């Protein structure tokens, strides 16, 4: 009991420390570096939300890009100033209530998340009866449907032309703030009775049902919560870049997030956070591989796309050597750190779950 | 075994991170030591869906860099970054050019949506960008730091409407558009507007059909169009789909001529469409048959010598973007990006390889359009259309 209290105090200190660091980062980092950090935080949110569905509940869903599109478009349409809306919709005017509404960032973001969650709830009802590959195909199809709908609703989403001039509200405080909130919600959820039920469903559905777990209720809960955070992540991403179009939300976007959770470990929160940071930062740091490299005596001609090869090799290594990703389903918790530091024998149930 | 693998993976990832850092230090030190280099950023899709288009433009930019390697007595260095045909990456690449590489001007990109993702970044960093073939009007609208050397969709749509009305004598037109492509949708819209104005008939567009990128079968759309019996069919879209569309239309017995936009000007259009695309007419930026300016002759000669094939229109646009940037730096007499921006904005009657360029108040090029047709399996020059002054 005492340990739990210390843990909470320590977490609060850590979070405050993080925001102090962010404050200085915001002062001293240029736009390029803070953009990469923002992306790290956003990919953490997206990774965590997909991991809740895929890693913890064991539902192989590929519909994340669709939920993100819903969140991104909702947030963008609500936060864009009226003159910019008029400029964007030069082909056909925006449908009526939306063209006069301008909301602050936070409510728009939350509404984006709620809409994504609502859609997830609606499609979850029929789709979550499927299992394994069938579920993957159905959710993939769903995200393509969202994209095609957004392409064709000219007066709502500006169709293929996309939206431009979305206010760049996303900054380090927004992205990291929401990432921390997501992290806390995920940790609390996973350690609650619901979390245990999710994991039971992942391990064995029939056994879980025998234990009295309502399969459908828990599956749809995980799916909806995951979609909610995906919508928020999408909204943050749209307002970070400042321009969105339906082509942005192709399957590749889901694949990027899938890469993060597979590398980090399906079913590990810390793994997702670590791999979101590693992948996003190294994607930029590895850019020198695309350029010509001068070794002094001779020059290697740059091959565009070489940095992507590194990720393919990394993915192959992970699949070959660590089936379960970098962290598997283990976590780095404060308990473990404290034990490591004090070199006390591990307490029962304190480490491995 | 597992421990070794863990160690290996950790070392690999860490070493890649460090490799990135050490490279960065090198670069900053080198750019500090020789400030006699002017950096021009090139931001193009080199991988991903639009890689082919990006590669063509880089050909033109590299050629221009070889012909004009110096300005203000300093060497010009091209900094190429890949935007992966992806919006998130495009924004990162633009931020990298403006913040880390500290370039004077940015050139690119192929694809309007990628340019739009960079728009806010160049505006905030106050570094001018010159678009090569991004034709969507939204790219430069409301952005003082984005310019372009190509004409925009409204002009191209108007040119084709004029062509259909006055040269083909069409009174009724049908539209088949690639609905997931911003370029095709924009072109179709402006074609519709000016065709309605020309004919004075609000019902002159007898049918509008949509298809998606990657579609193979167009029989539903074509049956619809056949029953409407138009004089001309305007079908802006990707070359593969357009070629298939025209082929299937001829098989269905549709005789009306097809007209389209500059995306058709690729060898694949003819190889897929074969004899079905004979007579297909489209507007484009440039022709290698009839040099427009002195610069075009120079460009054509050097291009054929270096690459051993005929230049694509976008290669000429890449070339133009580079020489326009150089000219602006020369006029400004400094590498101060705000002053260079002001000089770019003043550009008037600048002689580029793809025609004379004057920039209007939005930063869009006002220039000639070229009309070409497919004749005996080759793209043949038909006409040059002057812009309305």
Overview of this structure, please?
Chain B: Keywords: Signal. Chain B: Residues 38-375 form the Leucine-binding protein domain. The complex is a heterodimer of chains A (353) and B (389). The radius of gyration of chain A is 21 Å and the shape is globular. By secondary structure, chain A is mainly α. Helix content of chain A is 70%, strand content 2%. In chain B, the strands form three sheets. Chain B has a seven-stranded mixed β-sheet with strand order 8-7-9-10-11-15-16, sandwiched between helices. Mean pLDDT of chain B is 86; it is low at 16-33. Chain B is built from twelve helices and 16 strands. The chains are: A mainly alpha (353), B alpha/beta (389). At the A-B interface, helix 2, helix 4, helix 7, helix 12 and strand 2 of A face helix 1, strand 3, helix 3, helix 4 and helix 6 of B.
Chart the SSEs and their pairings.
The complex is a heterodimer of chains A (353) and B (389).
Chain A: H1 2-28, H2 31-56, H3 64-79, H4 82-88, H5 96-100, H6 105-127, H7 132-152, H8 154-157, E1 163-164, H9 172-190, H10 193-203, H11 205-210, H12 215-241, E2 243-244, H13 251-264, H14 269-285, E3 293-294, E4 299-300, H15 306-321, H16 334-342
Helix pairs in contact in A: 1-9, 2-9, 2-12, 2-13, 2-14, 3-6, 3-7, 3-12, 6-12, 10-12, 13-14
Chain B: H1 2-33, E1 37-44, H2 51-67, E2 70-71, E3 74-82, H3 87-100, E4 105-107, H4 112-125, E5 129-131, E6 146-148, H5 153-167, E7 173-178, H6 182-199, E8 205-211, H7 219-228, E9 232-234, H8 239-251, E10 258-260, H9 267-273, E11 281-284, H10 294-307, H11 313-332, H12 337-345, E12 350-352, E13 355-359, E14 365-366, E15 369-375, E16 378-385
Parallel strand pairs in B: 1-3, 1-4, 4-5, 5-6, 7-8, 7-9, 9-10, 10-11
Antiparallel strand pairs in B: 2-3, 11-15, 12-13, 13-14, 15-16
GO molecular function (chain A): branched-chain amino acid transmembrane transporter activity
Membrane topology (chain A): Multi-pass membrane protein
Protein name (chain A): Amino acid/amide ABC transporter membrane protein 2, HAAT family
